[in-house]
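Figure 6 in text form: structure in, sequence out.
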């Protein structure tokens, strides 16, 4: 019969890439056009079913601004999964996730499922991060690559469902 899983997942990435937006779209089905910088971190819970199993996700949204970087370990500690989020129109935000990946691998080893997330897919015409490069990078670090638009609600449910399945299978 069914199992009850409890997982912690964390959203990491530069300021303004859409971490808060992904969480609020997923948990509350809301989207805000304004950028309100996250201060430190916040978390929301969401329960889902996968077949006969139930999964309770604690989703931690962290602050992307560089001055909060040192707080990272407090929030990613003991995470079962991590979303490394970049903005497909911003190459610097893509470079930024590489340092998070290194840091997570050092701190959590292979215990944490890594998802590389190219957000703002609705802005395809302004894309600056070649999709192939992003996918190859993800593969090279043993992560999976996802494309999302928190704005249009594209790929968001799939992202959280997929990481939940992968954490449950671990
Ligand atoms: P910090 O809290 O500073 O780390 O930022 P964040 O990564 O949480 O970004 P946030 O969710 O606040 O979004 C930043 C800006 O990008 C806001 O103006 C959002 O409306 C916008 N945004 C987020 N997701 C999308 C998206 O999928 N498409 C578009 N076009 N804009 C988006």
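Output sequence:
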């Amino acid at each position: 019969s069914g199992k009850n899983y409890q997982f912690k997942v964390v959203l990491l990435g530069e300021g303004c890439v859409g971490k808060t937006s992904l969480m609020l779209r997923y948990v509350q089905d809301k989207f805000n056009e304004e950028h309100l910088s996250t201060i430190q971190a916040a978390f929301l819970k969401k329960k889902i079913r996968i077949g006969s199993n139930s999964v309770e996700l604690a989703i931690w949204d962290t602050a992307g601004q560089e001055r909060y970087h040192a707080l990272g370990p407090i929030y990613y500690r003991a995470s079962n999964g991590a979303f490394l989020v970049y903005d497909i129109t911003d190459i610097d935000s893509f470079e930024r996730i590489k340092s998070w990946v290194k840091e997570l691998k050092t701190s959590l080893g292979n215990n944490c499922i890594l998802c590389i997330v190219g957000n703002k897919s609705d802005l395809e015409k302004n894309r600056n991060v070649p999709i192939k490069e992003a996918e190859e990078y993800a593969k090279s670090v043993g992560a999976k690559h996802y494309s999302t638009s928190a704005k249009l609600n594209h790929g968001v449910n799939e992202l959280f469902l997929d990481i939940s399945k992968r954490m449950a299978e671990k």
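Caption detail: Strands lie at 4-12, 41-50, 53-62, 81-87, 113-119, 144-147.
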